[in-house]
Amino acid sequence: MFNSKYEIEENYQVFPGHYLMAFKSLDIARTALPGQFLHIRCYQGTEPILRRPLSIHSINKEKNLVYILYRVCGRGTGLLSGMKAGEMLDVLGPLGNGFTMPKNDEKIVLMGGGIGAAPLFFLLEEIKTHFDKRIDKVSVFLGAANSDLIVGKEKINKMGFSGYYATDDGSSGFKGTVIDLFETIWTEGSPDRIYACGPSPMFRSLAEAADKNARIEVSVEEHMGCGLGVCLSCVCKVAGPGTSTENAHICVDGPVFDLRKIIF
Amino acid sequence: MNLAVNIGGIFMKNPVATASGTFGYGGEYADFIDLNKLGAIVTKGITLLPRGGNPVPRIVETPSGMLNSIGLENPGVEVVLEKYLPYLRGFDVPVIINIAGDTIDDYVRLAATLEGVQGVSGLEINISCPNVKKGGLAFGSDPESAAEVISEIRGVTALPLIAKLSPNVTSIARVAERVADAGADAVSLINTLTGMSIDIRKRKPVLANIVGGLSGPAIRPVAVRAVWQVYQAVSIPIIGMGGITCARDALEFIMAGATGVAVGMASFVNPRTTIEVLEGIEAFMKENGIEDVAELIGSAHKN
Question: Model ipTM?
Answer without folding.
Answer: 0.94
